[in-house]
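lol ok so funny story. i was supposed to be doing the assay writeup but got distracted and ended up predicting the structure for this chain instead. priorities right. anyway since i did it might as well share w the group, maybe its usefull for someone
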Amino acid sequence: MTTFASKAEVFENPLEEPIRNLKRAEPCILVIFGATGDLTARKLVPALYNMAREGQLPAHFACVGFARRDKNHDIFRNEMFEAVNQFSRVKPVDPEIWKEFSQCLFYHKSNFNEDEGYDSLHKFLKTLDQQFNTKGNRVYYLSTQPTFFSMISDKLSQHNLVYNQDEAEKWSRVIIEKPFGRDLESSIQLQNEVERCLDESQIYRIDHYLGKETVQNLMAFRFSNAIFEDLWNNHHIDHVQMTVAEDIGIGTRGKLWEESGSLRDIVQNHMMQVLSLAAMEPPISFDSTAIHDEKVKVLESIRAFPMDEFDEYVIRGQYAPGYVDGELVKGYREEDNVSPTSNVETFVALKLHIDNWRWAGVPFYLRTGKHLPKKVTDISVVFKQAPGFLFNKEESRLQQNILSIRIQPDEGISLKMNCKVPGLPSPLQPVKMDFRYGQYFGLEPPEAYERLITDCMAGDRTLFARWDEVLASWKLLDPVLTKWAEAPPKDFPNYPAGSWGAERADKIIENDGREWCLL
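and the output, tada:
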């Protein structure tokens, strides 16, 4: 039987121990559906290895990969070893830790619709329960295409692989990858189908952005620092910007991207989740329900887009050939598995208003895109201009204070403020106070999946999307999809790769006398 070391055994010097999630993950078996896919190799198994390395896995644990390809336990373990060597945040792989960890990795071959495969899985998991003392507890990770979500949920229920909530001696939980539906109607349909098999408390809708250290720190930053929380309102904040930029294109995801686009892939989940954390009211406690309640209030307070001024609030774009890091890259319509006349967006910019007391009159500007100049995810809180009558000369013109929360890369927080330049004359110049997790704590933050998998094993749903959050987000954005379907764009492609997206995105912020922050 394999058991994993505790934190104290892994780190001889307590001062060298990373500041980590202190929740206790319970004994369980993790079953990964779609275990031969990229997500398992790039993120999930490397996350499990790092959790084992740092004493985060439960002492009694096993992992089973469920997929259609023909392979055995040893082949799967060897493939995962190569994956961890390539994608783990901690390299090289420690041979002793891997030797122990690999003994809890197994492979189960079956099609997702094959009843015999679920019957044999049921028997296999019972055998592993006895071998690893996992107490019958289960986590099922649906790392598959969304079309399989309801089918797998049904099969798990039919073959008694998920339990009723009344079974207090053991539990079962299901992690579902995004997207949860393609639009409002399909998301409701999926929820109805999954609800037939699972209680809402068993459903963990994962959004890896919520596992990032800086996103988790949003609440701590706001509610533990009075200097900022007292300013976090329309009396002091002029506007808020959020950018999710990627310098890469769609790569090999042409077929998938043709079915999704930026609004579904990034805005509806990642950006709406982070926005709700940044804008919510203080919860009454750190209980999962209290936090989700406040997030829902924000999402339900976002003003619907005015259809008569739609183009002043919503912009879409698609990249053309251009230069990224000095290299010529092809346009979206030239990518593999993409239609040469495709109207799928690779860029979106939005202007939002949150109609509540805290944010009345404060616009939120959001943008996301592929093949932009750099990879960065940033929230910029732009404060109102200080009275400038003391500094009214051109060379001393005041700039607005900007609090920048960097989610990736170089996770951290910076504050731009005006300071006097030494000497005479003495113009003002903006300077930055900069905090970075890696520099200050001497270590890189853990990968998002490490935190989220640990939370699921501990039964903490705080960093997972609740159904009413998903519903509120789709209610806001579904009319955008409908509008776009009724009026296909006439100017695609409308931005060269390597630029900051469609020019009209600049207009929605410039028309308000503002501009995008430099990142």
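The two ends are 51 Å apart (CA to CA). The longest strand covers residues 237-245.
back to the writeup now i swear
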